[in-house]
Design brief:
The complex is a heterodimer of chains A (308) and B (402). Chain A folds into 3 domains: 1-65 and 153-220, Rossmann fold (3-Layer(aba) Sandwich); 85-150, no CATH class; 225-286, Lrp/AsnC effector binding domain/regulation of amino acid metabolism (RAM) domain (Alpha-Beta Plaits, 2-Layer Sandwich). Helices cover 31% and strands 30% of the residues of chain A. Chain A has helices spanning 43-50, 92-102, 107-120, 136-148, 166-181, 193-196, 217-223, 267-277, 290-300; strands at residues 3-14, 17-28, 32-36, 58-64, 69-70, 77-80, 154-158, 185-190, 202-207, 210-216, 227-233, 248-254, 257-262, 280-286. Chain A is globular and about 70 Å long. With 402 residues, chain B is mostly helical. Chain B is built from 18 helices and 4 strands. A 4-stranded mixed sheet of chain B has the order 2-1-3-4, with helices on both faces. The longest helix of chain B has 34 residues, at 175-208. The two termini of chain B are 15 Å apart. Classes of the chains: A alpha/beta (308), B mainly alpha (402). At the A-B interface, helix 2 of A face helix 1 and helix 9 of B.
Chain lengths: 308, 402
């Protein structure tokens, strides 16, 4: 596989606590990969090690920007940290130009790109205002621009949706998709799995610093044996028989509606059973959301879910 | 590994950003303004006192002293008039009306004790400076003549005396020449400490507003630290330059600047100690800034560290009195004391070349230590956003590769 970032056996402790405990994964070029897990699972520590901000205790991190494995080149990577911040007493545009210049972009080009991005996000009129004059939402947009202004080949977003209102969440999702369409590879971390699973091509689920699941999102969902079944039927009919079908567990029930979890193999047989006993109005069968898969998998291993 | 282009970018940014900051503009302009103002006020006050005209009445119960007084006051701006003892009440009235500045009473007793009463309206009208010396001269002459000396003998006995310090080569030494380098070195030192503290609070601010992690995603902690130290250092040099120019222009009004006698040979070692000291303390201050959560929550111990370089200042009078004493020479080799002690010693005495070399070597050792470990604490402390680090944690950070 063509990997732009390859992480092998990465580990890092803080005192007795193992924040990251021997994880390995690769980020395929041009894809969006999600590093997902609850707060305190080790996502930020892993990302800081990839960015060279923290030194790992063990493991290897290698990049491949031009066909050859190489060490970290910060100028080719964009980074949006979880802990956001810019110079509040400095003009918006000057903030962006300075940060881009640290990535090696010439000042003139940086200024041009900054103004283009600000216009694109309806912030053009604030370019010469001090950052502190902007609302929190606007500042978050500026922060996003700062991470991608120098046209990086790989961008690391650490909790990009934290603190965003739903409108800006959608905006950021759109921007991340645009970056991918433009050829940028994205590694994003998030604890709100349901929010990002639709964005990701592949995922790496982490808990207590260790891998829980990883791979293509579709494959993970497909290989997960259970389905969520939502059945709508004529409310005058009795649905008691649902409780005795092998492999079927009723989660929620009311006249004319049942939401169930099915762990059997034969979905077709199940549907036929419903049709033969009830007047079915609507039926959906789908894999459970990623968050549930995560929690179930962790539970099956006898572990608890980390909460920071 | 250092990346100079990054150091240069950080340096440029820090210099320009702080150059435009209100704090820099205010301190750079206000301090010379205060200097000029205080020089102006003392000059004005000085000329006013010496030019003041006084009308003073004298009640001379000895009946002999007044001619001595007249002669002593002859070349001053004080006009004396003789009054009778019975007129004291009338004189008080005249003082109250403003017709007289005050009156002096000489009795046979107080001429002996030397405690003379001077009656005035309020403390503001005392002007002792104008009366003191002539009254003393008159009393001395009077007493000596009473002892039987002739006018010539009195002249010989009261001839003025001046202590003229000379170096062993025979040249005259001026007090201005001896004190000025010391004053200059103290000013430089204060400017250096100020730059170091601006750096510390700058680091703290970047940590508090969280930009530091973004910076570290582009440059290494050492690049960042060095760029900051150099940027603020140059700013400090600029500030000192402005202060010095204003200070020298103001000083040239009163003293002959050629007396300063600071040759390039004398200045060079001072500059080396100053620059070395700045880099060492700047690294230390930046590291301290990185371990604090906020100015308010920086622990007492951390705030105390900021005072360490100033410790020799408390012993400054002892150091100046005996700049080559054994304890001074030993303490000069303790890196945190070296810059301040050597600046003081170099400004008041000749320090042997070998000792300049050994103290400078000690300073360089300290500098390397502080820059390496300062950078380590700096890079690790920066990401501890929500708390002030304990000394135990700092010590752990210094040992392990973060």
């Amino acid at each position: 596989m063509d990997l732009i970032l390859d992480v092998r056996n990465l580990a890092r402790s803080f005192g007795p606590k193992k924040a990251v405990d021997g994880i390995s994964f690769g980020v395929p070029r041009g894809e969006i990969m999600g590093l997902l897990g609850p707060n305190g699972a080790g996502k930020t520590t892993a990302i800081r090690m990839i960015m060279g901000i923290l030194v790992p205790d063990a493991g290897e991190i290698s990049f491949d920007f031009d066909g050859h494995p190489q060490a970290l080149d910060k100028s080719k990577i964009g980074y949006l940290p979880e802990e956001r911040g810019l110079y509040e007493d400095v003009k918006v545009c000057d903030n962006l130009v300075y940060l881009a210049s640290l990535k090696g972009l010439p000042a003139e080009e940086a200024r041009r790109e900054a103004l283009r991005w600000l216009d694109r996000l309806d912030l053009g009129e604030y370019a010469d205002q001090k950052l502190e004059k902007l609302s929190k939402g606007m500042q978050q947009k500026v922060q996003f621009v700062a991470s991608v202004l120098h046209r990086p080949e790989l961008v690391l977003f650490d909790e990009p949706f934290a603190g965003l209102d739903p409108v800006n969440q959608d905006l950021f999702k759109g921007l991340i998709r645009e970056l991918q369409a433009g050829g940028t590879t994205v590694l994003l971390s998030a604890h709100q799995m349901n929010l990002v699973e639709e964005l990701c091509d592949s995922i790496f689920l982490i808990n207590h610093g260790r891998e829980v699941l990883s791979g293509k999102l579709e494959e993970i969902k497909e290989s997960y044996k259970e389905n969520i079944v939502e059945l709508r039927y004529d409310a005058t009919e009795e649905g008691d028989f649902l409780k005795i079908i092998p492999g079927l567990r009723v989660l929620r029930e009311q006249p004319g509606l049942a939401v169930m979890r099915y762990s059997g193999n034969d979905v077709n047989a199940l549907l036929q059973e419903f049709a033969s006993r009830l007047t079915v109005n609507a039926i959906t069968v789908e894999k459970p959301p990623l968050h549930e898969i995560f929690v179930e998998t962790v539970r099956e291993r006898g572990e608890d879910v980390e909460v920071a | 590994m250092l990346k100079w282009p990054n150091v240069k970018r950080v340096f440029r940014w820090e210099f320009l950003k702080n150059l435009r900051s209100p704090l820099f503009v205010v301190t750079t302009l206000m301090i010379p303004l205060i200097m000029l103002l205080s020089v102006g006020i003392s000059y004005y006050a000085g000329t006013r006192t010496t030019q003041a005209k006084l009308d003073v009445a004298v009640i001379d119960e000895t009946g002999e002293l007044f001619p001595y007084l007249e002669s002593a006051f002859s070349s001053t701006s004080v006009t004396l008039s003789l009054s009778e003892p019975a007129q004291q009440e009338r004189l008080s009235g005249q003082v109250e009306e403003g017709e007289l500045s005050g009156y002096l009473i000489f009795t046979p007793e107080n001429v002996q004790t030397g405690v003379i009463d001077y009656y005035v309206l309020s403390a503001n009208d005392v002007n002792v400076g104008l009366l003191d010396r002539p009254v003393k001269t008159a009393l001395t002459s009077y007493r000596l003549e009473k002892m039987g000396l002739t006018v010539e003998e009195i002249g010989l006995a009261t001839a003025p005396m001046v202590l003229q310090p000379r170096s062993i080569s025979g040249e005259g030494i001026s007090i201005v020449g001896a004190i000025a380098p010391f004053v200059v070195s103290i000013i430089l030192l204060i400017a250096v400490m100020t730059s170091g503290q601006v750096l510390m609070y700058g680091v703290l601010k970047e940590k508090r507003n969280r930009i530091v992690e973004i910076l570290l995603s582009s440059v290494s902690a050492v690049d960042l630290l060095l760029g900051k130290i150099l940027g603020l250092g140059l700013l400090g040099v600029l500030q000192i330059g402005i202060w010095m120019v204003v200070g020298l222009v103001a000083a040239s009004r009163f003293i002959d600047l050629s007396q300063l006698g600071m040759t390039a040979g004398a200045i060079l070692p001072m500059l080396l100690f100053l620059i070395g000291g700045y880099i060492m303390f700047a690294a230390l201050f930046a590291a301290i800034g990185a371990t604090m959560k906020s100015v308010e929550e920086g622990s007492q111990a951390q705030s105390t560290v900021v005072l360490i370089p100033m410790i020799p200042m408390f012993a400054s009078s002892a150091i100046i009195m005996s700049p080559n004493a054994l304890w001074v020479r030993i303490c000069s080799h303790i890196p945190v004391f070296t810059p301040v002690m050597m600046l003081m010693r170099l400004s008041v005495t000749t320090v042997p070349a070998w000792e300049i070399a050994t103290t400078f070597a000690a300073l360089m050792l300290g500098l390397v230590f502080f820059v390496i470990f300062g950078a380590r604490i700096f890079s690790r402390g920066l990401l501890q956003f929500d708390r002030t680090l304990s000394f135990r944690e700092i010590e752990r950070m210094m040992r392990k590769d973060y």
